[in-house]
Design a protein that fits this description.
This protein is an alpha/beta fold. Helices cover 43% and strands 15% of the residues. The strands form two sheets. Strands 2-1-3-4-5-11 form a six-stranded parallel sheet, sandwiched between helices. The protein has a six-stranded mixed sheet with strand order 7-6-8-9-10-12, sandwiched between helices.
Length: 336
């Protein structure tokens, strides 16, 4: 059952009217009463009503941003794009992580209740889309960056994951690679499904069916990429190319190939996805499908500021195209 304003009032020992006044900064209340109400909100994880988070509450000139973790390799690039736009418009950024799971969500609820920011940017942590949707339905302006294929009811900015998978396949086909191994991302992510579908469709159109045994799951980490390729080789899989669903997986794959005495790109060509910094530093440097990460952050910030300002763009969401970046892992010269 969702927590109600009545539950908060009962926990704090005050009336529902008093809770509403705390949420909306209305009327004269003692500091002790305000603190008791806020403590109750924190303990219960209360999601405030539209009246508490609507645009009429006033402006803080701060934007909140919730991210799963700061360890994801592309998070910093997205944040930089966000900050570039916010600072130019006179806004600051309040960064929140999901490092502590449910406790992190409760703290987010407290920040919303306290009107700590005017709107929320979010790279949705796994399992939290329903909660974020509730906040949006309650009146908080929300924009998602990288929707993972979930297509939320609120504005979002994503990239062409399916087309990116097709770009990777087209390049490998162009250089004569007809037996690819796919090291995929987490199956619950929509972006994983879209990248895989685009890749498989392109090979199918070329008359090549990729067997399920040549699609191995990973968790977007270096170790998973290395271990997936080790297992494939140990199992006798034969392949002349690898499409990894992010650059960390691809970097791990390169190490496993080198350990096995296979040459890249002569024996096996490798394509990653994202174009984070590591893609330029591997040996050989990675061919990859570039996600426009900084541009995604910029676009999301602009969409959110439009909503905060009361003049949302008629285009509620944006999709920014991927591009293929060819380097040494598929070409000896690093050129197409």
């Amino acid at each position: 059952m969702p927590v109600t304003i009545g539950d908060v009032a009962a926990r704090a020992g005050v009336s529902k009217t008093t809770v509403s006044r705390v949420l909306n900064d209305k009327g004269e209340l003692s500091e002790d009463t305000v603190q008791r109400v806020r403590q109750a909100i924190s303990e219960l994880g209360y999601v405030p009503s539209a009246g508490a988070v609507g645009l009429a509450r006033g402006r803080t000139q701060l934007i909140g941003m919730l991210v799963p973790s700061l360890t994801w390799p592309w998070i910093g690039t997205v944040i930089q794009g966000v900050v570039d736009v916010l600072e130019n418009e006179g806004f600051g950024l309040r960064l929140l992580t999901f490092n502590r799971g449910e406790e992190s969500l409760r703290k987010l609820g407290v920040q919303v209740a306290a009107k700590s920011f005017d709107g929320l940017l979010v790279i949705v942590p796994p399992g939290t889309l329903g909660y974020i949707t509730e906040l949006h339905a309650a009146g908080l302006p929300v924009v998602m960056v990288d929707d993972h294929g979930h297509r939320p009811v609120f504005p979002h900015v994503d990239t062409t994951n399916r087309a990116g998978g097709a770009q990777a396949a087209a390049h490998l086909l162009d250089i004569g690679r007809r037996r690819p191994l796919v090291v995929s991302g987490p199956e619950e992510f929509g972006c994983t499904q879209e990248r895989l579908a685009g890749f498989l469709d392109a090979y199918s159109e070329a008359g090549i069916t990729i067997d399920d045994s040549h699609v191995v799951p990973g968790e977007f980490t270096f170790d998973d990429g290395r271990d997936a390729v080790r297992r494939a080789l140990a199992g006798g899989a034969r392949f002349d190319a690898i499409f990894a669903h992010n650059d960390l997986l691809a970097a791990g794959a390169l190490v496993a190939l080198r350990e096995a005495g296979l040459r890249v790109p002569d024996d096996v060509a490798v394509v990653g996805f994202d174009d984070v910094d590591v893609a330029s530093y591997t040996d050989p440097a990675l061919t990859t499908v570039r996600q426009p990460l900084r541009e995604m952050g910029e676009a999301a910030a602009r969409l959110l500021l439009d909503h905060v300002g009361g003049s949302p763009s008629p285009t509620l969401s944006r999709t920014i195209a991927t591009t293929l970046v060819v380097r040494g892992s598929t070409s000896a010269t690093g050129k197409p």
